[in-house]
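Narrative summary of target 7.
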Amino acid sequence: MSVHAALVRPVFGTPRGRHAKPRSAWPRMAVRTLFLLCAAISTGAVVGADWPPVLLVVPVAALLLLVAGAVKLRTAARKIDTIFAEELTRETPAEIGESIEIS
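Modeled conformation, tokenized:
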């Protein structure tokens, strides 16, 4: 990716502009529906079989860890994008006219 393309690309949020295309929402909705269906089936199986509700703790904990990991990964990616965007906008010593000493 060129420097100009990186500077034009937004760091946060969705793409903006005349040529930005909205992403399809059906994959997200399908995954959410599938997750809720699995949660309902699991809860129904535990309640219907008269198993102790504590059996739902492990799947819920795994889900919470997965969500927390995804959130942290997205946050880290945004921070890295911000750092790169800041580095790309800085002036180099050659642009400033500063001499560089190489030892």
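Residues 26-91 form one domain.
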